[in-house]
Each structure stands twice: as structure tokens, then as C-alpha cells.
Amino acid sequence: MPTDFPRVLPSKALARVAMLLVYSWAQSALAQDALPVPVFQPTVKEIVEYDEYAGRFEAVKRVDVRARVSGYLDRVAFKEGQIVAAGDLLYVIDQRPFRISLEAAEAALAEAQANRDLASIEARRSRDLIQRNAIAQDVADANEQALLASVARVSLAQAQVAEAQLNLDYTEVRAPFPGRVGEQLVDEGNLVSGGIDSATLLTTIIQEDPLYFVFEVSEQDFLRYARLNESGGRPTSRTTPNAVAVRLIDEDDYLHHGVMDFVDNELDPTSGTLEGRAVFANPNGFIQPGTFGRVRLQGSGLYRAILIPDSAVQFDQSRQFVFTVQPDGTVGRIWIEPGPIVEGLRVVREGLDGDEQLIGGNYHRLRIGMPVSASAAE
Question: Which CATH number fits domain 35-44+303-376: 3.30.750.24, 2.40.420.20, 3.30.1330.30, 3.40.50.300?
């Protein structure tokens, strides 16, 4: 073995070797093929945002059909669940006692009218006699008072006849408005009670066309709508029948269209929400009161928006970002503030200006600063 070969390289030689190794590694990295990625530009267009709220349909009119007079139920004149028109007969309460009461009231009226006619004759005769000083004044006055009393008794008898006729009419329970009748709650032969406090519930009727859709909005949304009205972006639904649409739980599109017709006058202090109500036509009765749905209403005025596919939005804990291709061909990152989905695309409220080249795939292989080969995304 040669004895003049140095056992340790000088420090300058080590530095040269290290530089050669780093250079070789860098050249090797640059020589690698860049990752192919699809790229696209954000869509820029004028849009209107829509808000969604859950709610339920309610009947515009609903009534509990109750007995107004007491008696035995004589007949049920409807089939459960059928559509009835206003004035259709539903129940008949035994009418015989009420017919007798009416006849008695009419007889009392005839008697009172006869007594009034006799008192009128006596009063007229008294006026003739008093002019000839043929009777005393107190007798004439008594006859005049008897006439007035008989007239009052006729009025009382007429009121009793009207009451008896009304009670007889109440034995026929009729539909107050067109709608669908509910379950028959009382069968024939049962005793039902009338009156105000303890009247027997017989059935219910609901109006199916139109229907209300009732929902609640948060205080934050209410304030946003109020400011939108002040700025002229969208008029308030308190005074304007703004258009709305509803989709049912088995529907993907908003197929049912209506208008706003009411906004409550105060927020619920326990929930901090405000009730809104829309009205919908339901001519074929397809939608039933109590049906759940989601209502969509205009949530903004027309404005210029930047939209991207929702799949391009990436997450880093609580923040969201998109991958972009830098001018030098490497991967960059832009933090964004996303908005709602409009027309199938995600609104970007802050972070983009619409000219960026955004990466539309291979997200799991991307690293910030790595070289990429860009191609237009479909």
C-alpha cells in the first residue's frame, strides 16, 4: 500500500464533494416529469343568491265541527275523508223536540198578536170616549199601557220563534267552507251536547287549496333581509309578495311555486327566530297539510360573483383554500371565503378575482411548490 496517500480528505475537497452531491440531487429532481393536472378558470357571472329553510304546509282554513244544540245524533250524512262543498250536510240531530218547541213558540206568538189586536181596539175606543168625556182618564191611560205591553209581548214571542227556528236549523250540521272532512268522531244514536263550553266535537274540516307554508328565519337572516330592503336589493316580504319555491322530501327540484304573504311582527324571544309564511296553490290536493318541505327564497340582489366547482375547495382545519398554478409552473395555494351553492357551483366571496388558473384534480398528490404540467379541465 502506498504510504503517501492521505488518510483524510482536506476540508476544501469535502466541500466540493458536498456541492457536487447537492447539484446532482437538484438536477435529478428537475429532471423528473412534472405532475399532470387539469386546470380551469373560475366562472364570473351575475347571479342572485337563494336561501333555504325547512318548514311545513298548513291549512289556510281549519275548523272543529261541533254540535250547537244538544240531542241524540240521528244521521251521519258524509263519508270520512271526502271532499265537501260549503253548506253540505254532515250530521242531523234528532229534530222532533226542536220542531215541537218551534210550534209552541209560534202558538205563543199568535196568542200575543191576538192580545195586541184586542188591546189596540180597546185603546182606540178609549181615545174616542175620552174626547166625549164618557170615560175616566185613568181608564183610557190603562188601555194605552195595555196596548204597549201587548206590543212588547208580541216582540218577545217573535224572538222566541226566531230562537226556536235557529235551534231547529242547528240540528243540521253543515260544512262552513269547501274542504276535506276528517274522521267521524260520533256515531248515530249517541247523545251530543251543544253550547259554547262543552259542545261535542263531531269531526274536522280543512281547506286544501290554497295551503300555507310556514317556516322560521334566524335573527341574522332577518337583519340581512332588512338591510337588503333598505339598499334596494330586494323588497321586504312584509309588503311585497316575493316569489318562493318549495321542494318536498322526495324531490330534487323546487317544483311548487308560491308567494310570500306574511311575516310576523316580532321575533320569538326564546328561539331568536321570526316566522314567515307563503301561500301555494294546491288545486289537485296533492300536498297535504303537515307535509314537510324546504322553501327557497331570494337572499340577495343581482351581483357579480365568482363561482368554482365545490370539489375544488380544500380544507386545512377550519380554513378553506384552492390549489392554483403559479406563473413558474408550480403549485400555489390561495385562501378563500366560500359562499353558498348557486346553479351547482360554489360562490367565492373573497380570495379570487376570476383570472386564476385553478387545479381541478390530483389533489391528494399535490404539494406546495412542486412542478406541474397543466392541461385544460373538462
Answer: 2.40.420.20
